[in-house]
Amino acid sequence: MTHPAIKKSMEAQEKLKKQSHEKVELPKDYLKEFKSYDIVFTGRKSTLLYNEKTGEIIIDGQIYKPQVIDCGSHYEIKVLGKHSYNVSYSEGHIFLDGRMVDFSFTPSVPKLKRKGKHGANKIEIRSPLPGVIVGLHVKEGDIVKQGDKIATLEAMKMQNELVTDQDGIVEKIHIKINDQTETNQIIALINTKIESN
Amino acid sequence: MIQKLLIANRGEIALRIIRAAKTLGVETIAVYSEQDRHSSHVKMADLAINIGGGPASNNYLSIEKLIDVAEKHEADSVHPGYGFLAESPEFAEAVVKAGFKWVGPSAEVIQKLGDKLTSRSIAEKVGVPTTSGSPDPVLPNEDAKKIAKEIGYPVMIKASYGGGGMGIQVVRSEDELLPTIEKTSKQAQAAFGNPEVFIEKFIEKPRHIEFQFMADKRGNVVHLGERECSIQRRHQKLIEEAPSMAINEEEREKMGKLVKKLAKYVGYENAGTAEFLYKDGQFYFNEVNTRIQVEHPVTEMITGKDLVLEQLLVASGKRLSWKQKDIAFNGHAIELRINAEDPLQNFAPTAGKIEQLSIPGGPGVRFDSHIYSGYTIPREYDSLLGKLIIWGENRNQSTARAFIAMTELAITGVPTNLPFHRVAIANKNFQKGNLNTHFIEDNLILPYIRAAYNRRVAALFATQMKTRKVFLPIREQSNWRRVALKEMTRRY
User: Fold this and answer.
1) N or C: which end of chain B has fewer CB within 10 A?
2) A6/B426 touch (CB, cutoff 8 Å), yes or no
3) Can you give the residue range of the structural domain that contains A126?
4) What's the structural domain count of chain A?
């Protein structure tokens, strides 16, 4: 007999395999009500968007509307219908399903756009460590969205995906496939100005 | 019997060795680098010697310094652990030459088995099944093409002195062959100081099964059954278990006998592991690890034998404590390697300070680790933080216990691979025992971890918004510093 907790997780994994992960296109004004928050959870940093009025949360393009039920000693939270979590607070710590976790957040402060060589509207994709470019996923003139892969860098036997953290147009690509890169070498330049159009 | 043992290693294995030595009443000398000043092994040993900072080549890999410490502090034996100098014939030789007992096989045996071509030909001689391959190193020429054709594509180009999955390239067609040989050879020269490469048949998506054996100086050898270590990423093992679901009693006995024969043939002493690839009922010899392995505890759990303690006894010249008939297998054990690696960032290594640590317990639960709350993980060394080892009467019980233990184990402040283990254990193919070395890629483990992570963030965020509990973010800098920085940069 498989353990019931394992079974539950197993079913959730099977379900994910079947559903294709489609990002929903949101209406343009939809995000107006949302505020951005910086999260630190289990030592990892991420950002989410939160709508105070509706309680909706957007992470990685997926909309969540968790239901929080006060159960006295703890809170029961239902996420995406089926998944339920148990959150409790004691001694200044947060417990998720009985396990102590670190979780904190702050409203995102808009980043100071440092005027680089290319001005505020252009971002550079740089090589984080020395390696070899084994894949290029965009051409000059391509429109890219936040999180899109720009290039694959192989370093220390690992394949690292270099992604853009902003939307924009690929203005220039400075490398070819199989090129050796140095730390901080510019790989591509992305023009982010189109956002305002 | 040895009296004073130098442990030429760090981290959890140093602790493991200290514990075994203490059980025998053997005094211990630990060595540590500047970065490891606050490591647990420093506190647990009877004596701890600082052997300098800088890269590992200046301390844990410095044969000269280690021998010097052993001499100065009158050690009579050296245990190398795993990694660092554990499989260095030069170190083994230097230790013996300086008059100390070496806890491991002789330098000559390490040398022989460390060379992949020699070890394969030894395996063939004693009848251990191997993959077909080139008997000698190859160069990028027509001969290599001929050999590859004979073996049949896909083939692997392997560095003779490579290890840990480094320096291996797969070639699927003839036109890739020569450039790949050239490239691998160059890499091998850079990484291992020797450009020799050879060709071997590539086994697609095999299981990884290995046999533990133990030998004394008098030619007695026992095998302690197999471990399955199929769950790997980039050739690094993440989950190991014993016994393997894939093989039966008959195969175990047959392979165990062959492994013993191999150990006797080379005059092996101390602990060793023969690694195999396994597919469709066939074993293919991979290599012999001439040291104690990270995953030795799963074997300890199902046999009830203390392998590290036995290593010390055997190195002292004692007769092996067990005969083959004393080795019986009870239940099932699984080991989860807890690494400072983030599965959400494709297992990139992480570093930082462990804020809180709570350790699971209960029947059959063992946590071998050197970390504590407040411990800062140095960037310089491998990312292993500890090993959660779980025993159960059968696989269902051990995996259930492992799953529960994973919900109890909490390490905060630094991203770890804990989410990976929870997801992997609850995977359908894992539960069924359908494993191979491509388990992680084939089962969409990483996308699921991401989805589960995001759901938890949503749950925690929603709760805090509702309850209005205020938790200040972890401060990285004091306010004094922050204000000073603002003053300096004039950015308010």
Assistant:
1) C
2) yes
3) 122-196
4) 2
